[in-house]
Amino acid sequence: xxxxxxxxxxxxxxxxxxxxxxxDTEAFSLEGWQGRILDIRPQEDGxxxxxxxxxxxxxxxxxxxxxxxxxxxxxxxxxxxxxPDDVEVTTARDTEQxxxxxxxxxxxxxxxxxxxxxxxxxxxxxxxxxxxHGNEMAVMKxxxxxxxxxxxxxxxxxxxxxxxxxxxxxxxxxxxxxxxLIDDLYGVIVAxxxxxxxxxxxxxxxxxxxxxxxxxQLIEDYRVWFANR
Length: 229
Prior knowledge:
Strand order of the largest sheet: 4-3-2-1-5
C-alpha cells in the first residue's frame, strides 16, 4: 500500500475486515474484532503497520486459547499490529476506561489459571481441576490429598527458606516422614525429623535434596503454586 493514501489517525476506532487471520498463528479469524489505533508505523520495505489496542468487548470475547498461546509465546494479547487494508474505521463501542477494566479483569483470570507458568502451570491446572479457586482451603486440601497419594515417604529435604524463629534454620537437612495436616495459613504441614528431634513444618519451605527423585517436581510445583496463590 502507498503510505501517502492512509487516512487513519491515532485514536480512531477500527474494525477488522472479513478474511483476516491472526498474523502470528494464522489459526483463527479476526473478523469483527475492534479496537483503537495506538500507533501508525510506516515501514521502509513494506506496508505501514497499524498498532491496535483491542476494546473491552473484543477482549472479553477473545478465545481463552488465544490469550494463553500469546502468553506462552511472550506476545501482548491486548493489542496487535495489522495492515491498513485489514481494517476499517468504525464507531467506538466503549470507553478507554472500559478497556483498562477488561484488561485487568482478564489478567487476574489468566494469573489464576497459571498458564503463564508454561508446562508447570499446566500441571498445576490439572491437579486443581474442578476446585473452586476462590475457596483457598478447598484448594489446599486438594493439594494435600494429591501429595499424599503421589509423594514417596520418607525423603530427605533441606530447609531453604530463611527462618525468623523456631528450632529449624535455613540449610538444615531433615527427613520428611508424612503429611500431618492442612493449615489455612501455612498450607501442607509435614512431620519431619532433624537428628533425634521431631517437628511439624510447612512443606512450602522445603526442597528435595535428591533432584532425580520423582518427589522433586511435584513439590516444586506445589511450592510455586503456594508462592503465587
